[in-house]
C-alpha cells in the first residue's frame, strides 16, 4: 500500500489566506477544526539539520526559540526545497527542532534513527555535575546517582533499539524490552523536571532534563510504531501528553525567571533571564502541543494497515522533502 503523503506546498494558498493553521503536528481548517493533514519529519530534514550544525548546542537551540516553529513553518511553506530549508535553519538555529521534538521539534514519528539520536546526546558529564551541585541535603546524593543511572540507561536503550533493526525476530523482543525499560527512565526525568521548576534551577540544567525527557518519549513512541502496536502506542501517547501538560501548563516566564535567579551568578541581568525564560516557555508550549497531537498521528498510522517498520523506513529514506503531510482518514491512499 502506498502511504498517502503530500508535500506541504500543496497547502500554501490556504495557509496564506488563514484558512488552515498548524497545531502541534496537525494542519486543520480554521473554521471547522477539521484535520486536513498530519505533519511528519523526514530523513531529509535531519540531513539538513546535521549539515547546518543545528545539533551542536541543544541549550542554545532551545533558548533561540523566540520566533516559534509556527512562524518558521510559515516560511518553509513558501519553498519546500531542501536548499530553502537549509537557509531558514541557518537563521533560527533550528530551535526546538534539535531539542524538543521533536524535530523539527520531533515532528511526528522520529526519522533520525536510534543510533544518531544517541550520538547527538551532547557530552553531559559537566551538566550532571552541575545538577549534583544543586542538590543540597543528605537524601539528594541518591537523586544525583539516579540521574547518572538514567543517562546511562537511556543511552543503553538507544543502543538496544538500534540493534532491534537487525534482530532475527524483526526486533520484536528488543523493542518490547526498550518500551518497558524507558518507563522508569522517563519517571526519573519527570521527577527532576518538577523539582527544577518548583525549587529553581539553572537554564542549562532545566533544558538538559527536558531534552532527555523528550528523547525518552520519542523513542518509546517509535518503538510502539515499529512493533505495529498502534493502539498501545496511541494510549501511551495520550498518557505522555497528559503528563507533559501537567508538568508545564502553569509555567510562565516570571516564575521561570525567579527559579533561574536562584542559581544565576550575582551579576546576571534580570531582563536577560526574563528573555531567556520567555523563549523557553515558547518551546515548552510547542512540546505540549506536539505531544497533545501525537495520539492522532498514531491512530492515523494504525488505520493505514501497513507495517510500522515500512512507515519509518519510508521517512528515513525520503531524499528531498524535509516535511511531508500524511493525509487524514477518509481520503484515498
Question: How would you explain this protein's 3D organization?
Answer:
The chain is α+β, with helices and mostly antiparallel strands and 333 residues long. It is built from 15 helices and five strands. Strands 1-5-4-3-2 form a five-stranded antiparallel beta sheet. The longest helix has 34 residues. The chain is globular. About 14% of the residues have low confidence.
Helical fraction: 55-70%
Q: Class by helix and strand content?
A: alpha+beta
Side-by-side strand order of the widest sheet: 1-5-4-3-2
Tell me the span between the first and last alpha carbons: 8 Å
Number of DSSP E strands: 5
% residues in beta strands: 5-15%
Parts with pLDDT < 50 across at least 5 consecutive residues: 56-60, 64-104
- Series of secondary-structure elements, N-terminal to C-terminal: EHEEEHHHHHHHHHHHHHHE
- Give the number of helices: 15
The shape, in one word, is globular
Biggest sheet, open or closed, and with what strands and sense?
Answer: 5 strands, antiparallel
Radius of gyration: 19 Å
Mean pLDDT: 79
Amino acid at each position: 500500500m502506498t502511504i498517502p503523503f503530500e508535500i506541504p506546498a500543496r497547502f500554501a494558498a490556504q495557509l496564506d489566506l488563514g484558512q488552515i493553521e498548524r497545531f502541534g503536528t496537525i494542519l486543520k481548517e480554521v473554521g471547522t477544526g477539521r484535520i486536513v493533514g498530519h505533519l511528519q519529519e523526514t530523513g531529509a530534514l535531519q540531513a539538513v539539520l546535521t549539515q547546518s550544525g543545528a545539533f551542536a548546542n541543544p541549550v542554545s537551540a532551545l533558548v533561540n526559540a523566540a520566533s516559534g516553529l509556527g512562524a518558521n513553518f510559515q516560511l518553509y511553506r513558501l519553498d519546500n526545497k531542501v536548499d530553502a530549508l537549509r537557509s531558514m535553519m541557518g537563521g533560527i538555529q533550528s530551535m526546538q527542532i534539535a531539542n524538543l521534538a521533536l524535530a523539527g521539534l520531533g515532528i511526528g514519528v522520529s526519522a533520525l534513527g536510534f543510533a544518531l539520536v544517541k550520538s547527538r546526546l551532547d557530552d553531559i558529564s559537566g551538566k550532571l555535575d552541575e545538577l549534583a551541585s544543586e542538590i543540597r541535603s543528605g537524601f539528594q546524593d541518591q537523586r544525583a546517582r539516579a540521574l547518572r543511572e538514567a543517562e546511562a540507561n537511556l543511552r543503553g536503550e538507544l543502543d538496544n533499539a538500534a540493534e532491534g533493526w537487525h534482530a532475527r525476530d524483526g526486533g520484536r523482543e528488543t523493542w518490547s524490552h526498550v518500551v518497558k525499560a524507558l518507563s522508569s527512565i522517563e519517571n526519573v526525568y519527570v521527577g527532576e523536571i518538577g523539582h527544577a521548576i518548583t525549587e529553581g534551577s539553572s537554564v542549562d540544567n532545566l533544558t538538559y532534563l527536558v531534552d532527555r525527557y523528550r528523547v525518552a518519549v520519542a523513542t518509546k513512541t517509535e518503538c510502539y510504531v515499529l512493533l505495529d502496536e498502534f493502539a498501545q502506542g496511541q494510549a501511551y501517547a495520550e498518557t505522555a501528553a497528559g503528563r507533559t501538560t501537567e508538568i508545564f501548563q502553569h509555567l510562565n516566564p516570571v516564575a521561570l525567571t525567579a527559579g533561574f535567579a536562584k542559581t544565576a551568578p550575582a551579576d546576571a541581568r534580570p531582563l536577560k533571564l526574563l528573555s531567556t525564560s520567555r523563549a523557553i516557555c515558547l518551546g515548552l508550549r510547542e512540546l505540549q502541543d506536539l505531544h497533545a497531537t501525537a495520539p492522532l498521528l498514531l491512530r492515523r498510522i494504525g488505520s493505514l494497515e501497513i507495517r510500522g517498520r515500512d512507515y519509518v523506513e519510508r521517512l528515513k529514506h525520503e531524499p528531498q522533502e524535509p516535511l511531508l503531510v500524511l493525509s487524514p482518514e477518509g481520503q484515498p491512499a
